[in-house]
């Protein structure tokens, strides 16, 4: 199955970001991708954390949800909307939500980011918990590919990458592909991004597809980029350093079976 990680440098205007996302989705579809994944915050990177509140949507109703549903249906492709702000019971907070759309245009899965990023090195300060309400439930979904193989796919977002127990849970549920839409900072990405992605692939003997924000944003934030596809042996099979673009790659279910048979580490767990 051909898949695509879409890298963006999202700005503050939702309409501009959606226009860029559509162009990248069209490129992925033209290249034959069955699954295309947008990065975290693809629809907007605001000037302030609280800008998310004005863009929040309710399930089944909203500009971004309509955009994703139409793109999936018109391009006949599975589309994963990296994240968008979704309403919570608290008017001062939103969920940071991944939505999955089937080629029918129907929403097939929803995942609310569980782990919320906080970082302070004296120069950069981030605390997602100020505006975002954490999710609580790991989510997998099934994607029947054109080859006849049904892929079990585990969902995650950005900072989740630092918590291997989430990915082990996905693998225990049969996941062969792990998605990590992200907006890693330049500082943390330079230090740990590829290392963590490859570790999650090796630990779980699964493909990892990680679309990212990559560049200097209107709000002054610099993101690391390096969207990539990693195979179940930990090899990077496709990547893009910076700027908007599409990372394409082929998934082979036989490769997953092969490495899991050669090195049955998932069967050897005792804890």
Automatic annotation (TrEMBL):
Coiled coil: none annotated. Keywords: Acyltransferase, Hydrolase, Transferase. InterPro entries: C-N_Hydrolase, C-N_Hydrolase_sf, Nit1/2_C-N_Hydrolase, UPF0012_CS. Residues 1-253 form the CN hydrolase domain. GO terms for molecular function: acyltransferase activity; hydrolase activity, acting on carbon-nitrogen (but not peptide) bonds, in linear amides. SUPFAM superfamilies: Carbon-nitrogen hydrolase. The keyword Hydrolase applies. The keyword Magnesium does not apply. Belongs to the carbon-nitrogen hydrolase superfamily. NIT1/NIT2 family. This is Acyltransferase. It comes from Acidovorax carolinensis.
């Amino acid at each position: 199955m051909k898949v695509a990680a879409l890298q963006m440098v999202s700005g503050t205007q939702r309409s501009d970001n959606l226009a860029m996302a559509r162009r990248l989705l069209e490129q992925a579809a033209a290249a034959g991708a069955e699954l295309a994944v947008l990065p975290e915050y693809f629809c907007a990177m605001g000037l302030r954390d609280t800008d998310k509140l004005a863009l929040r949507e309710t399930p089944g109703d909203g500009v971004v949800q309509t955009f994703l549903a139409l793109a999936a249906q018109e391009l006949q492709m599975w589309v994963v909307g990296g994240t968008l702000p979704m309403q919570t019971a608290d008017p001062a907070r939103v969920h940071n939500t991944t939505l999955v759309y089937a080629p029918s245009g129907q929403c097939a899965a929803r995942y609310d980011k569980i782990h919320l990023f906080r970082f302070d090195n004296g120069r950069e300060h981030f605390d997602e918990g100020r505006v975002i309400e954490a999710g609580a439930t790991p989510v997998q979904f099934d994607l029947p590919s054109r080859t006849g193989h049904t892929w079990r796919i585990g969902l995650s977002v950005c900072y989740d990458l630092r918590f291997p127990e989430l990915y082990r849970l996905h693998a225990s549920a049969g996941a062969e592909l792990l998605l990590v839409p992200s907006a890693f900072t330049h500082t943390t990405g330079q230090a740990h991004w590829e290392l963590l992605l490859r570790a999650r692939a090796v630990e779980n003997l699964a493909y990892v597809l990680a679309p990212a924000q990559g560049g200097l944003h209107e709000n002054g934030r610099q993101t690391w980029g390096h969207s990539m596809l990693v195979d179940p042996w930990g090899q990077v099979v496709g990547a893009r350093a910076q700027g908007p673009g599409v990372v394409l790659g082929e998934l082979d279910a036989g490769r997953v079976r092969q490495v899991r048979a050669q090195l049955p580490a998932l069967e050897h767990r005792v804890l």
